[in-house]
Amino acid sequence: MDSDLDYQPETDVDSSDDKVWELTGSSDDENIPPNSTLNVTQPNVNYGYDVLDTMPEAPASFLPERVPGIQLDQYTNTYATEHGLQKPSVFQSWYELSPDEFYRFCGLIMYAGIVQVPNIERFWSTKSLYNGLWARAFMSHDRFKAIMCFIKVSNPLSEDPNDKLCKVRMLTTYIRMKCIKLYQRHQNVSIDERMVRNKGKQDNGPFGLAYGVVMKLTKSISKQGYRLFFDNFCTSVQLLKDLWFIGIGACGTVLRTRKGFPNAIKDVKNFEKKSKRGDMRWIRDGQLLTVQWRDNKTISLMSTIHDANDSVTAKRRTKTNGQFENLTVNQPTIVHDYNKYMGC
Question: Residue 110 contacts by C-beta under 8 Å, 6 or more apart in sequence?
Fold first, then answer.
């Protein structure tokens, strides 16, 4: 009786075991050394589960550089071990933080940001007013405080002592790179002094702190036609000219005491005596335009992206003879654009 198990190989197939192909010379496979010989044999075909299979050894033992999985729990455990004795009241009940417990901790942090209570302790309160809060179901209050005490978002063994942000550098770098990847800037961008780390004394180079910060922040947008806006904390003749050199147009309010400010328009009091609201004056030095516009007071701006002749109209409310009235005045486009894009 014929059976599916009574299989015989076809006789016209060359199944000899001694047929060998030799490959010599260079290879495109980077895992094969050049000028080596690769012997390829035809193996026997085996049928069924009873034929013994001799499995070769693994090419390498699994020894990753770090423990697989989330790393922040490992950093926290390392930090707690090294600094626990400095906080004995917390460390005496400390035990290693697991990945699952770290996820629960992060969940509670996000929950606390959504549900507002007077203080963090109320999430574990047993009073009827807070009885509906479910933090107790996931972690005790003492354990939450212990993790908060030792939480670490950087590797304590590789922190750079010269980096003042070393404790959060990994996290800020990760967030920054994600933001860069997920968002493309529009043409008009601005820099505010709130972004500057420190106004204290430090080595800021020959052109000062603001100059160094702006040049560092704009490295990724050079030669792309961006237009940058900033206030008088940053604006200087040197900065605008150097930004122009790397393909970035710039505009900002400027102090009359800045080095390089045109001497011919430093006398604001005389200008205000002879001008009315909406009047302006300007000086161009190559690509650099300096404009003064009379509003309630005189405003000075510098730009490498504006034309002195371009203007719009602006509405102003002024008091004349004890009565308020609306005025329509001319406003240079440089002022209009600065108000529009500063802080965007």
Answer: none
Position 12 confidence tier, pLDDT thresholds 50, 70, 90: very low
Q: Could you give the residue ranges of the DSSP H alpha helices within 140-224?
A: 141-150, 169-182, 209-217
Residues 6+ away with beta carbon under 8 Å from 206: none
Do residues 244 and 226 touch, judged by C-beta distance below 8 A?
A: no
Q: What does the pLDDT look like over 51-73, one tens digit per residue?
A: 787 777 766 676 766 666 666 67
Angle at which helices 237-245 and 209-217 cross, to 10°: 20
CA atoms within 13 A on the CB side of 42: 10
3-state secondary structure 328-343: EEEEEHHHHHHHHHCC
- pLDDT of 245 > 90? The answer is yes
Q: Where are the alpha helices (DSSP H) in the chain?
A: 72-83, 88-91, 99-114, 141-150, 169-182, 209-217, 237-245, 268-274, 333-341
- Are the CB atoms for 256 and 281 separated by under 8 Å? no
How far is Cα 112 from Cα 90, in angstroms, rounded to an integer? Answer: 22
AA identity, residue 32: I
pTM of the model: 0.58
Q: What average pLDDT does this structure show over 136-162?
A: 85
User: Following DSSP, what letter does each residue of 214-249 receive, concatenated?
Assistant: HHHHTGGGTTTT-EEEE-TTT--HHHHHHHHHTT-E
In the chain, the N- to C-terminal Cα span, in Å, equals: 86
